[in-house]
């Protein structure tokens, strides 16, 4: 090898080595800056006056989303967003039949702060929407925050291929499918047939048709919906929970205060956390196990090393 060729060779080796070192460094930085998959925030007290209850929901919501990296991780400038609470029942917030209205309103505000163009809020309720929307207090709170609260138009449910184990096709609300960002905000409640109403079950609100047929195989129907819809963000409302006599509720004696929110991108982990807040064993809830078996996430939410805060 001539001196010239040797110098060229050594230079190339040096450049390759430098490139490998830079690559390793950049990989390390990428790993170090990987955003968390889950966050949990618990309030420092359990307020009873209306202003304190609202402030609790606002602070918890902002904390769990900020601890995930902020709403801009999920919502980009110009996005159209659909926020999907549980607005199924003609119940007040105190009865824990629906998602906390101040959580919903705060999520709406944070979407706009992240640059969202439009934020829609809506559900396919079990009771009449004309009653559930205002009585849940979600409608006035969300509208005040700037959202377009939608009473679903039955003509917009379109038969859609889901290609699931139980649901090969079903009527899905077209506007929910077509947004840039879909955010799921369930409340944790007991359910006599599925064990618990959590994030995956809250997705039944995207469906039209005879949903009572779902009860024949909720173990597979709920993961089918979760695989199809893939929410960018799930926020589990456990400020108040309904560990018995759900999902409708109504008796204030059945409501428990947990004063906690969790948020994340792992649907199974969020549902497992919600089950634990109901004092239920996640591994005994069939649709959570099925979701994990399909690779939707992990039942062991603690393995995600969630960011935990006291607000």
Task: Describe the 3D structure.
There is one protein chain. With 311 residues, the chain is an alpha/beta fold. It folds into 2 domains: 1-34; 38-310, 3-Layer(aba) Sandwich (Rossmann fold), CATH 3.40.50. Helices cover 36% and strands 20% of the residues. The protein is built from 10 helices and 12 strands. The strands form 2 sheets. Strands 1, 2, 3, 4, 7, 8, 9, 10, 11 and 12 form a 10-stranded mixed sheet that branches. A hairpin with a 7-residue loop joins strand 5 and strand 6. The longest helix is centred in the N-terminal third of the chain and has 30 residues, at 3-32. The chain starts with a helix and ends with a strand. The relative contact order is 0.16. The model is unreliable at 1-32 (pLDDT under 50).
